[in-house]
Design a protein that fits this description.
The protein is an alpha+beta fold. 18% of the residues lie in helices and 34% in strands. Strands 10, 11, 12, 13, 14, 15 and 21 form a seven-stranded antiparallel beta sheet that branches. A six-stranded antiparallel beta barrel has the order 1-2-3-6-5-4. A six-stranded antiparallel β-barrel has the order 8-9-16-19-18-17. β8 and β9 form a beta hairpin.
């Protein structure tokens, strides 16, 4: 499953870019199976050398990573990965790759196994699924990672091999969506705490949910809203299609309204175009993550949701998207477990995930 890939920078430049702690990890032989010699000799092997070094760790995940195939209406088969997180075939898959599609799991012998979607989460782009396959083993997440630029990271494939390896380029941070969720209302300034709806636009998320002019939005998903600027800031961190819960004051009553957000009327980015640097396609959903780590592993879109392995062989996250830069994004293990907890609750499943420890000028739209 390993593929040849170009060494993006010269070995000497790569050595300088890697922080001292990561360099020492290889020098001290913390990666079993690494080629003999110093860290510099390992780096001289390029990405292929790194993948060889991480293969030992990835073998332990042979029964934890499953290939998922979806059958969209256009007849083209889309592939992605799912990682097993619980007994009975409970696994996490990339939601945007399986949404509204008939999906199935395929083993190494090309045998097909049923997959059932139990719950989905637009914010994290994760879906909780149930795979009808025997001898699956849940991964054990490590949540105590001290993320730093230059540390080694790898991706484990479905055959117990390392499919990509590289270094962290940005520690955990927010990746705002290019096209954020919209209510479809005009807001007006008010002396009260909250965001007052001045007008509801027809055939939008707000009108479908039953919001009305004069409604005062005082909370979004449990977060108190101070004014309309803060509501707009919160909405910029949401995604089209995301389900949110609004607490609204209407007259003398306080009600809760569920809203499935719209997207922008015009979208400027092209889906899944190759990056000029390496001609590897990118995921259509590749941003809008509250907290993610950027790295230079050449993970393909169909390899997303592969476990992220550190230089000690621990599963420290899941590769969630191939981005437009030469690299990819991963969700740290603690973020994965937080969203998994919500998915399990929505699916009615018990926890059991292994863990290592105004004036016109003041009227605004949203």
């Amino acid at each position: 499953m390993r593929r040849n890939s170009l060494l993006v920078v010269a070995v000497s430049a790569l050595v300088v870019a890697i922080d001292g702690r990561a360099f020492d990890e290889l020098s001290n032989g913390l990666v079993p199976g690494a080629p003999e010699g110093s860290a510099r000799s390992l780096l001289a092997g390029g990405r292929a050398g790194l993948e060889d070094a991480f293969d030992v760790y990835c073998r332990d995940l042979d029964d934890s990573v499953v290939v998922i195939e979806s059958d969209p209406e256009d007849g083209a088969v889309h592939r992605s990965l799912a990682v097993v997180v619980g007994e009975g075939g409970l696994a996490l898959a990339k939601y945007s790759e399986i949404d509204d599609h008939r999906i199935q799991a395929v083993d190494d012998m090309r045998r097909v196994h049923p997959v059932r979607v139990l719950a989905t989460d637009v914010a994290s782009d994760l879906a909780l699924v149930e795979i009808d396959m025997e001898d699956l083993r849940p991964v054990v997440f490590a949540t105590d990672t001290e993320w730093r630029v230059g540390q080694w990271i790898a991706a484990a494939g479905s055959q117990g091999d390392c499919i990509a390896a590289g270094c962290v380029s940005l520690p955990p941070r927010e990746f705002l969506p290019e096209d954020h969720g919209r209510l479809g209302v005009y807001l007006t300034q008010t002396r009260e705490r909250g965001a007052r709806i001045d007008r509801v636009i027809g055939r939008t998320a707000a009108s479908t949910a039953g919001l009305e002019p004069g409604d005062l939005i005082v909370a979004l998903d449990g977060v108190e809203i101070d004014d309309f600027q803060f509501l707009q800031s919160c909405l910029r961190r949401t995604l089209p299609g995301q389900q949110v819960e609004l607490r609204v004051v209407r007259g003398t009553d306080e009600i809760v309204v569920g809203v499935r957000l719209d997207g922008s009327a015009m979208r400027f980015r092209m889906p899944s175009r190759p990056h000029a640097a390496d001609q590897v396609p990118v995921n259509e959903r590749r941003d809008g993550f509250e907290l993610a780590v950027q790295h230079d592993c050449l993970v393909r879109p169909d390899e997303c949701l592969s476990p992220a392995i550190d230089s000690q062989g621990r599963v420290v996250g899941l590769h969630v998207a191939r981005s437009e830069r030469p690299g990819a994004l991963l969700l740290p293990a603690d973020v994965v477990l937080e969203h998994l907890s919500g998915l399990m609750e929505r699916a009615g499943r018990a926890q059991g995930v292994p863990e290592e420890e105004v004036p016109a000028s003041d009227v605004r739209d949203a």
